[in-house]
Amino acid sequence: MIPAGGEKSSIIRMFHVHLNYGPKKALIDITLDIAKNQFVFISGPSGAGKTTLLKLFYYGEPVSEGQVLIDGINLNRIPRKRIPYLRRKFGIIFQDYKLIPSKTVYENVALVLEAAGKKPRLIQKKVKSVLRLVDMEDRLKSFPPSLSGGEQQRIAVARAIVGDPKIILADEPTGSLDDDSADTVLELLRGVHIRGATVIIATHDKTLIRKTGGHVLYLKQGRLETSTFIEKKYDNTIF
Amino acid sequence: MITLYFKRAIDDIFKNRFLNLVTVITISLSILIASSFILFFVNAGAVINSWKKGLRIMAYLEPTISKTGLEELKHAILSIDGVQRLQYIPKQEALRRLKAQMKHQASLFENLTDNPLPDSFEIRMTAIADSWQKIESVAARIESLPWVDEVEYGQRWFARFAYITTLFRLASYAMGILFFMAIVFIVANTIRLVIYSRREEVEIMRLVGATDNFIKIPFYIEGLIQGALGAILGLGVLFSSFVFITSNMDQGVLPDLFHLQFLSTAIVTGIIISSMLVGWLGCYISLKQFLNA
Question: Does residue B209 carry a pLDDT above 70?
């Protein structure tokens, strides 16, 4: 067992989790514990199972074996109709942004609050405020295909944080961005973390981890190899 | 919330104009074909009804019938369920009618010294007495009355006519069911294409915590709108064609008691509602498969 945080304030816990795709073992015997308001990196080489592990958190896939607990909810026992409510605990940022191309920037971000049944006035206020935070308030009527990669990722961040989720999951959030855009996205994630959210970033980018610092869970061939804490800009011993 | 669903449905229709247009055109063509058949069946039914109005039973009377007996018999026939009215035709009138009908064979009547025709009652039936069994039973009851010698009502012709009517009715029901199924199938597949083209959007909505209802309801509203638009378009084309055809058609080819008619308001409303139902059902089937996948 490789705990990453204190048990009392755990928000994500996994016990001996396995995930198989037919005969292929994608994740093997993962046990971890992530505390509330931690800043966690899931690192490892390509194909190690980082994205797959993130998917298990928001029930993107059911586990083959083992237990996953999210904020006290056992995902093995969650009814299908409760899954949307589980997902509202998360703000998810994807490497390929996953913005709806036929909806404007405003509509893409507002979708999260509309899905949660929030009142139109509150939606308008929150969306504008979060777009201001990511410095995209002047592009709210634009459509995603007309934006640069960095801008699209900022919209994805805005969409992830607009619902004030407890957990932010980011899958290679800076993977396709230039350094300036990557720094902006990272700053935004730090800001969310400071405001109380748990941030989990899946990345193979060591520079990103050194820049920010935090708990690092290192995956290799589907197994959790090490769990360590990296100080901002100093400690790079595991690499 | 429902305002939001409507707004999203309308927005989605405009944002996916092409595919929505394809769906509306598919529905409108299906409705055009189905309502053309309905129009045919309605008018063919009206032709049959106009023929039914001509149905009558002739009761030929015994020559010995007295005036009192005639009155009693008239009341007895009128009291039979299914009889609407009757007309007494004395034998002189019957002969006059026969001569009028056969004026080109007038020589046949030249050597006629006695009138061979009997007195009779011409009996008209009510509209409800349209089944073969009903008319047969009325005819049998009339025949059993005193002073009635013989009853004639075109038995063989009517049996054939009743058979055709039943066949016609069954064919229209069967075609109605087949059409409904075919339209649902076509619409469901067209809508599946629409949903498939928006699968990423649906997937994203699920990832941000949208419930199935949040995803489905705007699609359902779109289905209802597409159904209504398709029906209006299809019926519009049918009505224009109907007006064009009837204004250029020679009324002489139709029976005297009959005029071509367009679908009634009730049927038009029924078609629009059915089309909306088809649009919704198409969405329902496609989404059920898609969201459970």
Answer: yes
CA R_g for chain A: 18
Rounded Cα gap, residues B264 and B257, in angstroms:
19
A-interface mutation test, from B201, B208, B291, most A Cβ less than 10 A away: B208
Q: pLDDT tens, B96-144?
A: 888 888 877 777 777 777 888 899 998 887 765 556 677 788 888 888 9
Residue A200 lies in a domain: no
From chain B, the residues in CB contact with A116 under 8 A are: 209
Q: What is the ipTM of this complex?
A: 0.87
In-domain check, residue A13: no
d(CA B154, CA B135): 11
In a domain, A184, yes or no: no
3-state secondary structure B2-52: HHHHHHHHHHHHHHCHHHHHHHHHHHHHHHHHHHHHHHHHHHHHHHHHHHH
Q: What is the pLDDT of residue A205?
A: 85
Judge residue B175's burial from the number of C-beta atoms within 10 Å of its C-beta, 0-12 exposed, 13-18 middle, 19 or more buried.
middle
**CA separation for the pair A76, A183 (Å, rounded):** 37
Between CA B243 and CA A231 the distance in angstroms is 84
- B204, B206, B214: residue with CB nearest A100: B204
CATH code for the part of the protein at B56-152: 3.30.70.3040
Does residue A111 sit within a domain? yes
Is residue B193's pLDDT more than 50?
A: yes
Query: Do the chains contact at A81 and B212, CB–CB below 8 Å?
Result: yes
Cα(B9)–Cα(B1) distance, integer angstroms: 12
Domain limits, chain B: 2-51+162-292, 56-152
Whole-angstrom Cα distance, residue B132 to residue B42?
A: 21
B4, B16, B206 member nearest A114 (Cβ): B4
In a 3-state reduction of DSSP, which class is residue A5? coil
Amino acid at B200: E
* pLDDT tens digit sequence for A105-142: 999 999 999 999 999 999 999 999 999 989 899 999 99
Q: Which of residues 180-239 of B touch A (CB under 8 A)?
A: 200-201, 203-212, 214
A144 part of contact set with chain B, CB < 8 Å: no
Query: What residue numbers bound the domain in which A111 lies?
Result: 100-163
Total domains, chain A: 1
The rounded Cα B83 to chain-centroid distance in angstroms is: 25
